[in-house]
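Weekly structure sync, notes
Attendees: PL, DS, HV (note-taker this week)

Item 1: XRE family transcriptional regulator
DS walked through the input record. Source organism listed as Streptomyces canarius. Sequence as pasted into the shared doc:
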Amino acid sequence: MTSQREVSPHTARDAAGFVEAMKQLKDQTGLTYRQLEEQAARNGDVLARSTLADILRRSSLPRPDVLAAFVRACGEGQHVGSWLDARERIAVISPAASGTKPGASGESEGDAGIGALPETEEPTTSRQGQRKGRTLAVASVLVIPLLGAATWGLLSRSSHDSGDPSALARTPADGWVTIRPARNPDLCLTDGRDRGGAYASAVAVQLACAHATVPRTYLEPAGGGMYRIQWHHPQEGKGCLTVMSTGPVKGMLEPRNDCTHATLFRLEPAANESAGVFRLRPSTSGRCIGIVHGDTAEGAEAVEERCTRAADQQFLVRTSGDAQ
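Item 1 (cont.): predicted structure, written out as tokens:
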């Protein structure tokens, strides 16, 4: 396969040029729409061939999650961030060229069927949250250095326990954070096991923050208002939370060493944005992360589920202020 370096999304001046770059990338793979759909499924993504064909016939920008799935299916997963950044640049500087109507969500009409908000949601609030998320992502790329390469020995574990209200973020904080159920901020999403004992590997559960000093959590901007949720463990190394698509813990979150194919999340302001309350929405489905059965007990698993306004789908994202 020809290297993506020969098909740079950053040469595109508008949405039409961006779609043309996508066409060139597809042509270089030699894969059919059906084969790209099948490859995306093997990657754990959803990329309907009819949707992709429609996108490549239009001159408007695809949704970020569809774009990420497409680039990964083309075998260029290591460059997903670059494509998302290029898409964001065009969406910000030339909304008319990207097919965005005033007051619209910023996504092309042809992609409404993938990752769309449930009909029970309030589109105005959600769209405002998406626009704010995109603005923050652009600023993060320009001014905030990524700390993902820091070694575990340089990190202060005590910062993971920070409960200082001043650490609350008005917008999603990237860098070292804790993610806590808003209804019980003494708990943190962290490393645990499914309570049914059906799966030997770690999954995300809620435990007392005071006893959950490892792994550390790092929120990495991925472009397009999306984030990767990294876990850094002194023995296991770095893993990125991924929604399980099959198996006995389907829908739960597992840390995967392959961060390139990890799930991207949109952090959407929830009930009270000023208090730093967010909903975690996987880009692959448009659903929400909650706590299984709304359970408040320690050890309850995080799980992907239909979006509601239930308290179990609201999380505080707090910065770990003394991390270096």
